[in-house]
Design goal:
Elements lengths: L3 E3 L2 E14 L7 H8 L13 E13 L2 E5 L21 H7 L9 E3 L12 E4 L2 E4 L5 E5 H7 L15 H11 L3 E4 L3 E4 L2 E5 L8 E7 L2 E7 L6 H4 L11 H18 L2 E4 L8 E6 L2 E6 L26
Bound molecules: zinc ion.
Amino acid sequence: MPAIRLGSALVDRVEEQTLPVSLRLLTDDDALLARRVSPLPDGFLGGRSRTFQFSNHSWVVRVDGLTVLVDPCTGNGRKGRGHFFDDLDVPYLEYLARTGVTVETVDVVFCTHLHHDHCGWNTRQVDGAWVPTFPNASYLFVDREYRRWDTANPDRHANEFNPNVFDECVRPVVDAGLARIVSAPYEVSPSLRVEPAPGHTTGHAMLSLASGGARAYFSGDVFHHPVQLTRPDLHLPGCDDLATAVETRQRLVRRALDEGAFLFPAHFPAPHYGRLAADGDEVYFVPGGAPFDDQESASGDAQGTEERGSRAT
Ligand SMILES: [Zn+2]
């Protein structure tokens, strides 16, 4: 995928892996799927199998002189993360390097939340110890999310599906003095803000970009699949607070629609990002960077014109 230009920002995707996930976990409403999902590329529906391609990837945003890595996936050599995630041996850092970014040149790491598939490459194993992967980065953690998982916090919300994650992926960063624990909203740079987007987890947040008239939201797991744009009540298992998650989805749908903003979710299948459009009362997903016939009517100006962002899938 070529890098995407949004105003003065450049956005690349770095893939870790892709998994088949049944849409039945989200909905049995075949009429809804036929109406809103079947027009999308194959990876969103999977034909008769109703299995979508759940992509695990990070976004790299370069703007305001900063290189920001959003949601660094699960990481290699983990244990206890589940069938598809344990003992990975994926050339993620080579894929990162193909975007022109090395571990030394990442300035900011932002985890939308602290599920294992969003903070794994925060650290990597060296001589048996988990150490920060990005030695020159500030790692941003939202305070509510940090406290929700902090193993030193007696009031943390235990979660059997996310074992050892805080101690392996967050604690070593804190111990190395690289963590910045912030309250959302938080301004990262003139173009980038961390904003609250709670529900999927208690302190889930997103990164918003406003550059040269273009707007985008790196929305983590606010949405796992575009069917949730139309039906915000649908969700995959593992949500901390469903009522709040639904409100967050509704709010972001309205905002992205009003602004003509792009969504860059953490798990959408190819082309992995897009905009929203309305059809009567329903909102649906328009994949990719040039969704409207009349480009003048859109406030963003994404152009996939850069060649250097190639990446293996
Ligand atoms: Zn996720």
